[in-house]
Design brief:
Chain lengths: 445, 181
């Protein structure tokens, strides 16, 4: 969004002008102010403003009269009216006279940013339409999707072809294959990229928490709920919601999810107002959803609604040729983040990595490289720096769970049991980390 | 990164230990010198009985008068803040200004009927301070999803972002101040 959106604020109250000015400047808009309607009209004559935000009640010419005059000259101007007391009559009149919308002072910060975002989206869209340039899309922001193998190239071309649409996508792949990265790649190459990508790890939340997480709740919905809480669907408005571990949600949530996907409309828990949200949904799972449908543990209608496009990420062992590139990438990543000189990797070590099964896929490889850099000699990663003991590689008896437990414990130790830092390092959210600590009965030493 | 002098002032309602931890977190994130003050202050003058909240604009002026000088001052409040046009604010600062205010009032999980989570509360507070400080250093809102300069109007938005400035914002900071990163 290279284009800068300009806003004109028209209000007779200093404090309102100043606050709005400050708010929009911080949001990166070009802003000008006028303290009355006639000053505003002469500014509008001389300059072009994308959005005009005007108070209805002003001494001299009032806001509605100003609105009519602007609309007479510039029919497509986006004018938003503000009012201190929402009387239905004036609001209706404003809309009849061509106002884009009206808001009641004081505003909820979220409503204000929502309103302006939607208005500027309209501005950008109409400018883009005017230019109507068909550009060939090239994937951006996919630096962390590494691989030249045919399998990975196929995934990337699927990402490219699905990104431009708003279709639902299911990403399937073993754990550690990078499903969230694929979701990010789709989002950041889609027209929704300037709006949020909101992730929900469904597996980490109980049913009631998930419900409040997805839909939000109203003040007073249950004891202790002092304020409204926005749900993830609402946060994803104009953007994308990523539902990880979709196979774990309960039958009840499946029904609710289906309803939201069909109507794009929902209510907060304890609320009675329909909330609309325009989001794209991307799901991920490491389970065979089709089979779950056959077993009756996953709703068929929901499955078909979600599964418009299916992207399957191959496990690392099926794209061994990408291992050297990945190793190089992770070496660079961790050496840079630890401010160290780049290390090399011993031939024998690389060869062994290429033979390894990697039940934990790319994430496991990444963890191995990070660890090897930490414990290594700072020059070269040696075979002994890699946890690829002969028995492990040969028999693969060590389960993924055990690996995970060990790794989580290591990271917790490394960060002195600081949950935020550890979760960040593990690239999981705090709730998931707490669940893992509980699951593996890990103890603070 | 640039090295402003930061004065973190508690206007009551924060434990000494928490303030020290906040200062430490700020030192790590900004590499700046951070001092902490805990002052006794009568907030009643700034209370608006019709809104049952405290006036953020007036408080900014008061903080400015109380702490002259050229260090960046961030005032911490444990009460609910508003400005005339908005129903509430987590904090505010003038772009390139010297004063920022942050309210911790709505940052605790217990306000939303959830289990208290001191670590999460602390993270949110650090992020809000970093955010307002960013404005004071000339940064506007950033679209990068993890950047602390992304605007947030709900606590859930705060949780989505990290506590640091993104690469772009850091570059902007070093341009603004003429310092090398
Ligand atoms: Zn801000
Ligand atoms: Zn940024």
């Amino acid at each position: 969004m290279a284009m800068k959106v300009s806003i004109l604020i028209v209000d007779d109250e200093d404090s309102v002008r100043d606050s709005l000015y400050n708010w929009f400047i911080e949001d990166g808009y070009d802003v000008e102010c006028a303290e009355n309607a006639s000053k505003a009209l002469s500014l509008i004559e001389a300059n072009h403003y994308h959005i005009i935000l005007a108070d209805i009640k002003m001494p001299g010419m009032d806001g509605l009269e100003m609105l009519r005059r602007i609309k007479a000259v510039k029919a497509d101007a986006i004018v938003i009216m503000m009012t201190a007391f929402a009387t239905v009559n004036t609001a209706v009149q404003a809309l009849k006279d061509g106002a884009y919308d009206y808001v009641t002072k004081p505003f909820d910060p979220d409503d204000l940013s929502h309103l302006i975002r939607n208005a500027s989206k309209q501005v950008v869209l109409s400018t883009e339409n005017a230019q109507l340039k068909e550009r060939v899309t090239k994937l951006e922001n996919v630096d962390d999707l590494i691989g030249n193998s045919p399998a990975m190239q196929k995934v990337l071309s699927e990402v490219e072809s699905v990104a431009q649409s708003s279709s639902s996508v299911i990403i399937t792949g073993e754990s550690g294959t990078g499903k969230e990265l694929i979701a990010r790649a789709i989002h950041f190459n889609s027209p929704r990229k300037f709006f949020p990508l909101v992730s929900v790890h469904c597996g980490a939340l109980s049913e009631s928490l998930l419900e409040s997480e997805l839909f939000g709740h109203e003040k007073g919905a249950f004891t202790g709920a002092m304020y409204n809480r926005k749900g993830r669907f609402e946060m994803a408005d104009n953007g994308t919601i990523f539902l990880d571990e979709i196979a774990t949600i309960s039958m009840k949530m499946q029904v609710e999810l289906l309803r939201v996907l069909e109507s794009k409309c929902f209510m907060r828990v304890g609320g009675n107002k329909e909330i609309e949200s325009d989001f794209r949904v991307i799901c991920a799972t490491n389970r065979d959803l089709k089979k779950m449908v056959e077993n009756g543990t996953f709703r068929e209608d929901l499955y078909y609604r979600l599964n418009v496009v299916n992207i399957t990420i191959p496990p690392l062992r099926e794209r061994v040729e990408d291992i050297p590139l990945l190793v190089e990438y992770f070496i660079r990543k961790y050496c840079e983040s630890m401010s160290r000189d780049l290390v090399k990797i011993e031939k024998a070590a690389l060869a062994r990595l290429e033979e390894f099964e990697f039940p934990g896929n790319v994430r496991e490889l990444e963890n191995m490289i990070e660890r090897a850099i930490v414990i290594g000699n700072g020059k070269e990663i040696k075979l002994k720096d890699l946890p690829l003991g002969k028995q492990v590689a040969a028999t693969g008896i060590e389960s993924l769970d055990e690996n995970e437990k060990k790794h989580v414990a290591q990271i917790l130790d490394k960060y002195n049991w600081n949950i935020s830092k550890s979760a960040k390092a593990l690239k999981i959210d705090r709730v998931t980390l707490y669940n893992k600590i509980k699951k593996y009965k890990l103890r603070h030493p | 990164m640039l090295q402003p002098h930061i004065l973190l002032v508690s206007f009551g309602g924060f434990e000494k230990k928490l303030l020290q931890r906040l200062a430490e977190a700020l030192r790590i994130e900004t590499k700046a010198e951070v001092q902490v003050r805990d002052i006794y202050f009568d907030l009643n003058l700034f209370y608006d009985p019709t809104r049952r909240q405290y006036n953020g604009n007036e408080l900014m002026k008061e903080v400015d008068a109380l702490f002259p000088g050229n260090q960046k001052v961030i005032a911490l409040f444990n009460v609910d803040l508003f400005i005339p046009i908005l129903t509430y604010i987590f904090g505010q600062a003038m772009l390139n200004g010297r004063i920022g205010i942050v309210s911790a009032y709505r940052l605790g999980n217990e306000r939303y009927g959830l289990e208290p989570d001191p670590a999460l509360y602390f993270d949110r507070l650090v992020k809000e301070i970093m955010h307002e400080l960013g404005h004071m250093l000339g940064l506007i809102h950033c679209h990068s999803p993890l950047c602390v300069m992304r605007s947030s109007t709900y606590v859930e938005d705060i949780d989505q972002k990290h506590s640091a400035y993104c690469k772009n914002c850091l570059e902007m900071l070093s341009e603004n101040t003429g310092h090398k990163t």
